[in-house]
Write a structure and sequence with these properties.
With about 190 residues, the protein is mainly alpha-helical. The protein is about 70% helix and about 0% strand. The protein has helices spanning about 5-10, 15-20, 35-55, 55-65, 65-70, 75-85, 95-110, 115-130, 130-135, 140-150, 160-165, 170-194. The longest helix has 25 residues, at about 170-194. The radius of gyration is 16 Å and the shape is globular. The protein starts with a helix and ends with a helix.
């Protein structure tokens, strides 16, 4: 899953959300640099990623993309799934998406002094273009994938992935919905156990 899903799955626990948001930017023993609830959020992020990577429905989505995009197919599916979460936001959250994203940016900025370098660098761009809100539009996904394609070392072709999204739109949306029910249950169990 991508940023929006990680934030959403943290519920109203702000330090957990911070950890879940920065999970990809925390390496090795940096985990010891944070308070316990932020560390728990990083661990939740990692658990979500591991669960997602092993889920049969996600594999089905990736299979549609694997021949063309190879190991980038998982990254692309993460972005697609954030699109469907954003598009169907009112099915999952009582606060509208624009308000939710504004509240998130305010919250995360209050933790700016502890954010890893990569997150600190990315956050102003995310806020300026409100990536999280714009995930709700296919054009926003196209911009996100184009930006990611420019930052990869190899020719990822991610800038072309919106064509595949449109070609299999209904299938990807159904797969997201099927998977997300399972993911929400997994996160609830993980939070109870950890």
């Amino acid at each position: 899953m991508n940023f929006l899903a990680h934030i959403y799955l943290s519920g109203s626990n702000e330090p957990l959300m911070v950890g879940n948001f920065i999970g990809d930017f925390v390496k090795g023993n940096q985990l010891n640099d944070f308070e316990s609830e932020i560390t728990r959020g990083v661990n939740l992020h990692r658990a979500i990623d591991e669960y997602t990577d092993q889920h049969a429905v996600v594999s089905k989505s990736k299979d549609k993309l694997r021949e063309k995009y190879r190991h980038y197919s998982g990254v692309i599916v993460d972005i697609y799934y954030d699109h469907f979460l954003a598009k169907n936001w009112s099915d999952y959250h009582k606060t509208d998406l624009l308000t939710f994203t504004s509240q998130f940016y305010t919250s995360i900025n209050s933790y700016n002094n502890i954010l890893p370098k990569g997150a600190k660098y990315m956050l102003p761009y995310m806020m300026e273009n409100n990536w999280l809100y714009n995930y709700s539009k296919v054009e926003g996904i196209n911009r996100a994938l184009g930006g990611m394609s420019r930052r990869t070392k190899f020719d990822s072709k991610m800038d072309e992935a919106v064509v595949d999204l449109r070609a299999h739109y209904d299938e990807f949306e159904e797969e997201f919905k099927d998977f997300f029910v399972d993911l929400q249950s997994f996160v609830a169990q993980w939070l109870n156990a950890n």
